[in-house]
Every structure is written in structure tokens, then in C-alpha cells.
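WARN retry 2 of 3 for item q-0093 after timeout on previous attempt; input resubmitted unchanged.
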Amino acid sequence: MQGNEKGSAPWRDGLASPIAEGSLERAMEATARYGVRIANEAADSLQEAAETLRLLGYAVVDSGLTAEELDALRIRFAELYAAEAVGPRGELRRAAGEAELLRCPLALDPAFLALAANPRILALCESLIGPGFILNQQNGVVNPAGAQTYSQSPFHRDLPYQHYVSTRPLALNALFCLDPFTEENGATWVVPASHKEEAFPSEPVLRAQKRQVSAPAGSFLVLDCMLWHGGGVNRSAKDRRAVNHVFTIAMMRQQIDLPSALGEGFTDDPDLRRLLGFQHPQARSVTEYLAMQAAKRQRPR
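OK item q-0093 returned
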């Protein structure tokens, strides 16, 4: 992942270039109104997604991947998932109650690293979170066929146990749909705009306002991490598979310490190192902290 000629990360130009055909025509077909002095403008599909996320807390975003790239990801997901299900690792997963999860596939296959660095999603993160965000976690998720419940079915926030709101997102959840998300196979339930309220909604309001979000294979379902959501029941005959990503402000601790797990020599690409958190190591002592600060001061600016 190389920077552009100005030295910036490649996704940073994503919000400046229209992607959706006909976006200008749609902008010209304004809804009748009066008394409006301030109005948002969305010149392309990513800006529409950013505005929708601010307003409702969720949006579906096309990844831009080809059908061949999507098929290749499906094959590798199936291979990695099967490999992780056997032997000591499989036993440990089952003991931890994580038989339906594939933790950190980017460490196992570079195709999933490329998925985590999807330019459209990174552009959206920069627009909403701001520069300096990091990848907090990447996990494969399987919603088993015919299951009445699974690990992600209870309503939750992806910053669990937190009851506060913020003016800007602290984190975004980008759930990549390896398979289509439909009502039949347990598409994600959301409570629109619940990222703006501290408390979990009352049962009558929850039942009245929750919505199930369908999404095509190859798209991302992007959520503000403070939005209440949960997986649906998969009534189909096939497992529904996805790869979840959580992007956060850099001060949040990663689910798995990616720089330690991947190793210092994992990549020399400065943009990937920033995304994976290599720029924000956690000091284990005062001496180590001072050494890291001294090293930063010696780097060329």
C-alpha cells in the first residue's frame, strides 16, 4: 500500500472523487423545502455513507472488489476456518466458546490484510474518526445454519459495557459480507440512531424501532460502534460468513496486540504500520517509554 505523490495515504483522496454514477444528477433533484439555511451535500456514495452513519449509525458500503476477488476470499476463509477447527487450536477455541470465530485472519493470509486496508473503508474512517485511527481487531464470523442463537446474536455495542455518547465516532465496525446478508440467513439487526443515546432502549421501543439490514455479498455493513445491534437467526440451509473489522482512535487498546503478534518485520509500508498500530506501541516500563520517546525524536520528520 503505497502513498500518493504528496506522501499521503492512498485512501485520503477517496472522499474527494465521486464514485457513484449519477451523484450529480441526484444532487440536482432536491426535495422541495423551505426555511432551510444549512443543508448537507453528498457528492458521492462515500459522502452519502458518512452522512447516513452520522444520522442513523449504520450504512452499507460497496467494497469495490471484483467477483473473482470475493470468491478467492471465500475459499481462503473456508480453508483457514477448517484448519483452525482441528488440533490444539480447535480445542482451545471450543473451550473459549469461540468455535464460530476466526481471530485475526490477516496474520494468516495477506488477502485479509488487504481487506482490512480497503481504500473505501479507510477513507470513510478518516472522514468520521479523523486521521490516526488504527485497526483494533479483525475477526471472521460464522452465523451457523439452523442455529437459534450464536455468539453475536444478543444485542450489544462493539465497545461493550460503555454507556456514553460522543460528538464524533470513537470507533467504526466494518462487517464485510462474504455471503449476502438476508432476513432468511440472519442479517444484522440494528436500532437506528441508538448511538446517540447512552442507555439501552426499553423493550417497547426496541421492538418497534429495530430494523434488519440486508446487504449484498462483497459489501461492508458499517456501524458506529456505539450503535446497538445483534445478529439475526439463520433459518437458511447454509452458514452465513463475514469478516468483521473494528477501527478505533489510537488510544484504545487493541483486542490482540497486532505489532507483537505480527512481529516488527511484518511490513515496512508506513501506511500499513500506522493502520496496524506499530506507531503506538504500549510501553511496559518507564524506561521503555522514555526510550521510545527518544527514538521518536531522532526520526526524520
